[in-house]
Amino acid sequence: MTALARGLDALRICARYPNGMTLSAVARELSLPRAAVRRSLLTLSAMGYVSQTGAIFQITPKVLDLAAGMMNLPLPKLAHPVLQQLSDTLQESASVAILDGLDILYVARSESRRILSVDLGIGARLPAWCTSMGRVLLAYLSESQRREHMPIELVARTPRTITDRVLLSTLLDRIRDDGYCIQDQELEMGLRSVAVPIWGAEGRVVAALNVSTQAARTPFSQLEKQVVSAAKRSAAEIGQRLRNSGSGTIRS
């Protein structure tokens, strides 16, 4: 089980760096001995999930086999048509993500325009604490649960990023009270986003939905008046579809 866990962790780290990583770099990311990581990477290479060119290890297209069934899971399957409609209506990109460790994990997306400098698709990850969807998901957790999903060091992504833990905790409380999060250029300069919770069975927040836009194109007042209400309607529809299907979460 330990070897399997290490292999999956090594594959996950390599997937974050599609241009490849050295053995030493992967070992540093995982805080594991080089020998243990080397065994994992060589096994992944033998199975075809990682290729090795000199000292560089890269993921191969075979990793797509692991994600091929994700779109057929309840949440992505039910969310996709709703996201598509929302994206067409607003002419903006819309996404759904779940909380996974310190990150949010994208499970559905309809892209109208490329906004972020990073390429986001199903399976992409971003830090939960400084993203609109992550903050929504953290907002509905207890204080102790929030700490479990926060890194030791909060490193600013832009000059606007909130890194003070007290201010961040207060912001999360307000997001929970308001029922939505508006983030203004904290993840990347020029990016504004709105996120709202998706409620599943038993009154639990199982995911978050967001709409992303460029700050130069969309005034802050428009986000509050138009985008928040549209996002809430779409999130409510996805939640209702989940409850009607008997599925409360992506892992059903």
Report what the structure shows.
There is one protein chain. The protein has 252 residues and is an alpha+beta fold. Helix content is 44%, strand content 21%. It is built from nine helices and nine strands. It has helices at residues 2-16, 23-30, 34-47, 64-67, 74-90, 132-139, 143-148, 165-178, 220-245, and strands spanning 21-22, 50-53, 56-59, 93-100, 103-110, 125-127, 181-184, 191-199, 205-214. The strands form two sheets. A six-stranded antiparallel beta sheet has the order 6-5-4-9-8-7, with helices on both faces. Strands 1-3-2 form a three-stranded antiparallel beta sheet. Strand 2 and strand 3 form a beta hairpin. The chain is globular, with a radius of gyration of 19 Å. It starts with a helix and ends in a 7-residue tail after the last helix. The model has no long low-confidence stretch (mean pLDDT 87).
Describe how the helices and strands are arranged:
Layout: H1 2-16, E1 21-22, H2 23-30, H3 34-47, E2 50-53, E3 56-59, H4 64-67, H5 74-90, E4 93-100, E5 103-110, E6 125-127, H6 132-139, H7 143-148, H8 165-178, E7 181-184, E8 191-199, E9 205-214, H9 220-245
Antiparallel strand pairs: 1-3, 2-3, 4-5, 4-9, 5-6, 7-8, 8-9
Helix pairs in contact: 1-2, 1-3, 2-3, 5-9, 6-8
Characteristics of this structure?
single chain; 252 residues; alpha+beta; 6-stranded antiparallel β-sheet; 3-stranded antiparallel β-sheet; 9 helices; globular
